[in-house]
Specification:
The chain has a single domain, classed as Hotdog Thioesterase (Thiol Ester Dehydrase, Chain A, Roll), CATH 3.10.129.10. 19% of the residues lie in helices and 37% in strands. It has four helices and five strands, in the order βααααββββ. It has a five-stranded antiparallel β-sheet. It is elongated and about 55 Å long. 21% of the residues are buried.
Length: 147
């Protein structure tokens, strides 16, 4: 059983600069055809100061942390038993190319179902910009199969 004493623990904190080239690449990779995500002039014409961060790109930036497996290592979880359970994004403001975003991830909950055959680890990541303003909260659930 995963020890619930880790609920509330901060498992990662890092900052990353949003690069325009990565935004363009991501938009192309997901088939985002709106030029506001790849052309600076189109973004400015739409009222943005720079290229906006496409939805879900924050997850890519979160994976830039020094150790993306920190939660699993802290909790002693075997990656071979892990399933992706759920993911949610709550946005508060737009983020743009050139901004520096800070990601702080903590363990929000740990619980079991089916008599411990499945354990769930809920992680919450708070994203803020260089001015300390809330950009988004990312919430993800890791499912651990024990049977």
């Amino acid at each position: 059983m995963i020890d619930t004493k880790h609920i509330g623990a901060v498992v990662a904190r890092h900052s990353v600069e949003v690069e325009a080239g990565r935004l363009r690449f991501f938009a192309k990779a997901i088939g985002q055809g709106d030029p506001v995500y790849s052309d600076l002039e189109a973004a400015k014409a739409a009222g943005h100061p720079a290229l906006p961060v496409p939805p879900t790109f924050l997850f890519c930036l979160d994976m830039d942390q020094p150790n993306p497996r920190a939660t699993m290592e802290l909790l002693g979880i075997d990656i071979g038993r892990v399933l992706h359970g759920e993911q949610r994004f709550d946005y508060h403001r737009m983020a743009y190319a050139g901004e520096r975003l800070t990601f702080e991830t903590r363990i929000a909950d740990i619980y079991a179902k089916k008599g411990g055959a499945m354990e769930f680890v809920v992680r919450e990541t708070r994203v803020t910009n260089q001015a300390g303003q809330a950009v988004a909260e990312l919430r993800g659930t890791i499912v651990v199969r024990n049977a």
